[in-house]
Design brief:
With 105 residues, this protein is α+β, with helices and mostly antiparallel strands. The chain has a domain at 4-69. The protein is built from 3 helices and 4 strands; from the N terminus they run E-E-E-E-H-H-H. The strands form 2 sheets. The chain has a two-stranded antiparallel ribbon with strand order 1-2. Strands 3-4 form a two-stranded antiparallel sheet. The radius of gyration is 31 Å and the shape is extended. The protein starts with a strand and ends in an 8-residue tail after the last helix.
């Protein structure tokens, strides 16, 4: 069964869902309800207007506390790979010119 086609301007068709969707836990996903936050933060409009971001500040505080409680050491980087040119320069130049040193003339 195809979803209902909604006419729009332009060449791209849009479709509307005709049936609901359920999640992996076997419950119906309700439209208009997103993911519940782990930490609820009241983002006041006046503070936001003044350039403050309560959600960002709370997220930074939360992450800094997590780092303090469970610090993670960063492993040292591995040694750099050896990408130097090891081939004999003359043999490489001859090969680029199409000369094969193993062929006897």
């Amino acid at each position: 069964m195809r979803p209902a086609r909604i006419p729009i301007y332009g060449l791209t068709p849009r479709f509307a869902a005709e049936y609901g969707v359920y999640g992996p836990e076997g419950k119906w996903l309700i439209e208009g309800h997103g993911v519940d936050p782990d930490v609820v933060v009241d983002n006041r409009p006046h503070a936001t207007f003044q350039g403050e971001d309560s959600q960002l500040t709370k997220a930074i505080d939360y992450l800094q506390e997590q780092i303090r409680q469970s610090p993670v050491t960063v492993p040292p980087p591995p040694p750099h790979p050896d990408k130097s040119f090891k081939e004999d320069m003359a043999a490489g130049a001859n090969r680029r010119k199409g000369i094969n040193e193993n062929v006897i003339a």
